Amino acid sequence: MSEWRNSRLSRRRVLQVAGLSALLAGCGTGPAGRSTQEISFWHLLTGGDGERMNQIVTKADADMPQARIKQVVLAWGPPYYTKLAMAAAGGRAPDLGIVHMSRLAGYAPGGLLDPWDLGRLARYGVGESTFTAPAWKSSIVNGKVYALALDSHAFVAFFNTDLAGKAGLLDAAGKLPPIKSMDDMKRVGAEFKKVTGKPYGLAYGFLGDGAQLWRLFWTFYSQHGATFDLSGEKFAYDAEAFGESVETMRSLVDGEVASTSAEYATATSAFLGGDAGLVFSGVWELPQYQDKKMPLGALPVPNMFGTGIDAAWGDSHTFVLPHQSNPDEERRELAYEAVSKILKNSLPWGGAGHTPAYQPVVNTPEFKALRPNNDYAATATYLRYDPPSSFTGSGSNFMTQFGGVIQNALIGQTSVKDAVADFADRVNVLISKAVQR
């Protein structure tokens, strides 16, 4: 199963495709008898993401007759990251890998990755100007670039345009009215309820899902202009912003317009079935909504705090160079070329709901024509990645700890104040363990 709950392309199938590519290159020659090099590429993309990556890699392969890109797909989450770290530490690293930007701080400082050479990248038309500021800034660790973003994937709101039209919510441009407060949000939910006749107008799945809780929280918290500092001996945070963000989440799931106990799958099903007019979701869910031929609109999660700060939780799949003590320079050069070709041909990545990171692709008429992608594509310019640390990021225990504590506040088993204090204590334990290493 992939990160985004989509499994149309299996790990076995990708390995079969990769194996066939290697077999076809078995004689070691390309067109006109030129020798070929095999570039090993590890990633964790399956389902629709895997299909699109295979499409893009196949195109890059066709443009590189002197090389073959062999994809190796590993299980998402801790299994993938553990194997990648072991391979880099044990001298068996692949030529290329995929790492979430949010996990970079746990890999680059420890010598598990090699930095990208900016001069080499420039020869292939890749550099700071071809990425958004958040993606480029977050790729730098100790003054060196360790990651090249393939995409940005944000937490947004999708809505059913048919239901919104029947509820009288749409303006002349087919957009929802401005949402500037929780009262505004609840009014939108109440109007959807009137149309559907169902218990809830809004859908947000969070029960037992630390990642979902974290995504909405980090969006709200960042809209306050606040951040976490995990670099010292103690956890530093804005207690007022933290408390208000969690209170807002609790107000959302009040049992009136959104369920007090919806799981991820429950919320998704309610939206797909027309039982809810709006769902808070990651952009990676776009393909399944479109597969159901839903009349679909989208918008960034509104800032309801009056701060005027645009912010959205997000992450990026990034290309990295797993550490090699004595890299084969010919293969490494081909790895640079391969990444540049994948980035330049990443338009199909928009079909997965993601916003391609390579700006020349984003600025094409073809990408601008994608709907509703362009209704949230601006989130890439103000994306808020997870606070950098060796213990944070996608699939981390940090998110699990957050979910276990904050969920109790949302469902009324503890106060928000106590939940914040409990989480702070847990983070301090994580910090102390990281320091001891």
TrEMBL record:
SUPFAM superfamilies in the record: Periplasmic binding protein-like II (SSF53850)
Organism: Nonomuraea rosea
Name recorded for this polypeptide: Extracellular solute-binding protein
Pfam families per record: SBP_bac_8
InterPro entries in the record: Bact_solute-bd_prot1, SBP, TAT_signal
Transmembrane segments: none
